[in-house]
Structure formats: C-alpha cells, structure tokens
Design a protein that fits this description.
The chain is mostly beta strands and about 260 residues long. The protein has four helices and 14 strands. The protein is about 10% helix and about 30% strand. Strands 1, 3, 4, 6, 9, 12, 13 and 14 form an eight-stranded mixed beta sheet that branches. Strands 2-5-11-7-8-10 form a six-stranded antiparallel beta sheet. The protein is globular, with a radius of gyration of 18 Å. About 40% of the residues are buried.
Length: about 260
C-alpha cells in the first residue's frame, strides 16, 4: 500500500442532498424491507470515496451527470449511464499515476467465498482503446493462506479478460458491462500471495480459481475501483454490483439499488 496522497479532487455534494441521505440512511431503492435485511454488504452513502493511501500523483475522481454514450452512427450522444443519470468520472493523467475509489467500511469481513456476483460498467472517453488499460476492481483482503502474510490486493484485469467477462468487442464512448465474477475473468493477487497461489500479473487466474485457491480469504481494508500505474485514462464507471446490490454513482452521491438484468 502507498502512503502517498496528492492532489486528488472530488466534487462536493449539495447540503440538502446530504441531509436527505443522512435522514434516509442506506435505503435500498426498489427493495422491500425484507430484502434489505438480508444484505450481506450493507452500504452507507458517506462511506464511499477516494482511498488516499492507494492513490498516487494527481488523478481525479468526481461524481457527475452523464456521460452519454454513442451506440450508433448518429453524432449525438444518447446512451444514458446504466443507472440513474450520473456516474463516477475518473481521470488518470499518465502511467505514473494511480487512483483508488471505494468503500473502506461496509465490506470488511465479507468472505471471498461468499461473493457470487461482482460486476460494473465502464465508459472509456477516447477515440481508440488501443493501448488503453481500463479501470478494474480491487479487493484488499487478508488471504489467510500464507503464514505471516495478512494482506494482499486481488485485482480484476478487464483488458486481459474475455467474453462473457468482458464485452466481445470493447469499444470507446459506449457504456459496456464487465462481469468480474464469471467465466473468462482475469485476476491476480499482489505480493507473496500471488506467487503462492500462482495468480500473478503475468499469470492471472479466473475468479472461480481465485476463490478455490483462497478459500478463507476475506475483505479487510476496502472494496472498490482501481486505475493506474499503467496508462492514462479518461472515462467513467457506474453500477458496481456486489452480490444482490448495485451501487449507483450519481452526481449527489451513491445509491444502493437492485441490479438491472444484463444480456
């Protein structure tokens, strides 16, 4: 983990919205109270933000409306974000920078073995995806596999994944769905854990293999989105799904929703 925290910007939320969120707590949109009570990963809107200790350089992450994607030859952008009308904008200037955005509270203690759905949406704002590394998912865990090692980051690699984990044809300026928990997914574990289980950046493994090799791992410090120390990037993410809930990034904060079906 890095101790550096430099020049990261995140948009302020209107006071009246923060008040409404505080009064409503972690309400689940579209869910009955009975469903909400079964959530293994309850979420509070204010628990989401920049993970400073895992951020390097001067990247930027902020809540915004849009962006709208282009799914046809029409020059007008018309594809709305997958949830609501907003998203989390991410800007990484070059290969020396890194940004991490997530939740350092609500997922602590969640067992890797109990994660059955882990998906999200990506919008890459560029003319071409050639040579562009997309944002991934990172879980900071206690691997519980190597004596004396109680920390590792498990990182999803969207560029190394194949369908159905990643789109069959990744394209820029379009919202596309990535399923980090299914067939074709590519993951690696940092540090001694990766070498011990054979899931490294050079030799990634699937999510199913990761769960088999780390049967007792559990989330400790955070679960969230990571991008950096590889290529520059400008784009957005939305709808981070963990099991039965999707976390919708909106201009005024984070909402917990039931996930939409994807095909």
């Amino acid at each position: 983990m890095s101790d550096k925290k430099m020049g990261v910007r995140i948009a302020r939320r209107p006071a009246r919205v923060l008040l409404a969120i505080a009064l409503s707590g972690a309400a689940v949109l579209g869910a009955s109270p009975a469903v909400a009570e079964k959530a293994p990963t309850p979420s509070t809107p204010g628990m989401w933000g920049i993970i400073g200790r895992n951020t390097l350089g001067s990247p930027s992450a902020f809540f915004r409306d849009g962006p709208l994607g282009r799914t046809s030859t029409d020059p007008a952008a018309r594809q709305a974000p997958p949830y609501g009308q907003g998203s989390l904008q991410i800007i990484v200037g070059d290969g020396t920078e890194k940004i991490a955005f997530g939740n350092e509270t609500n997922f602590s203690g969640l067992r890797l073995a109990d994660i059955n759905a882990l998906t999200y949406w990506v919008f890459a704002g560029t003319d071409s995806l050639a040579g562009i590394a997309l944002p991934g998912i990172a879980l900071e865990v206690d691997p519980n596999v190597t004596p004396g090692v109680n920390y590792s980051s498990l990182v999803y690699l969207p560029n190394d994944s194949t369908a159905p984990s990643s789109p069959a044809t990744p394209v820029p300026n379009v919202w596309q769905h990535y399923n980090a928990s299914t067939t074709g997914s590519a993951w690696f574990a940092t540090g001694a854990t990766g070498a011990a289980i054979g899931c490294t950046l050079a030799t990634p493994c699937s999510f199913a293999e990761l769960k088999t090799k780390l049967p007792n791992a559990e989330v400790t410090y955070s679960l969230g989105i990571t991008k950096g120390r590889d290529t520059a990037f400008i784009g957005a993410v939305d709808g981070l799904q963990v099991n039965q809930f999707a976390y919708d990034f909106e201009r005024y904060g984070v909402l917990t929703r039931l996930p939409f079906p994807t095909h």
